[in-house]
Amino acid sequence: xxxxxxxxxxxxxxxxxxxxxxxxxxxxxxxxxxxxxxxxxxxxxxxxxxxxxxxxxxxxxxxxxxxxxxxxxxxxxxxxxxxxxxxxxxxxxxxxxxxxxxxxxxxxxxxxxxxxxxxxxxxxxxxxxxxxxxxxxxxxxxxxxxxxxxxxxxxxxxxxxxxxxxxxxxxxxxxxxxxxxxxxxxxxxxxxxxxxxxxxxxxxxxxxxxxxxxxxxxxxxxxxxxxxxxxxxxxxxxxxxxxxxxxxxxx
Length: 251
Description:
Number of domains: 2
Order of helices and strands: HHEEEEEEEEEEEEEHEE
Distance between the termini: 89 Å
Largest sheet: 6 strands, antiparallel
Mean pLDDT: 79
Structural class: alpha+beta
Helix content: 10-25%
CATH architecture of the largest domain: Sandwich
Shape: elongated
Number of strands: 15
């Protein structure tokens, strides 16, 4: 049997050499790929560690701001079903849990509760806020579930829901005292009522401690157009690699 195998190898030298060359090449390429992959992962980890270390001591700034309605989904009970953040820890503040500094605290719609953040008697500079504590410095993503403002709300006519061009120039979204800046449009398709969209601010690098989030009116008087640009707010969700803890109740 061995003699037949040896005879076949001798008689088919080119084929045997080809097979041997292929196997050696495959092994070499596989080793190089595995080595490159390991080297890339090590480089990526080092880069992320350095990025977190440097940016967590600087003013908070996300790597992207955009509307992404499929970024997060919620169950009927309010729990997060799925999200595209990739960060394991999460915390959501719903309308009833948000801190309101204007006169509409009681204007929560029954059923699909949300903050109706424009009323004619609103105080200029009003805000909707939340706070959560980060156990360690971490990358953080924030998702705001909001709808567009009411047009003609101050005139007493039936309001219609319209879009807001360049919403960050009309309303201040503030994270740890830093006003966010980018050009994004909040668009409603049918003008029939609140149409919830998810404004994502992803890629923050934040230090250990409190994360303070505010949505602030730029209006200077009760019927200022900027007050009408305040969005309806259903909830705000925070995603992080480190543990997130709700603020302790003052009661």
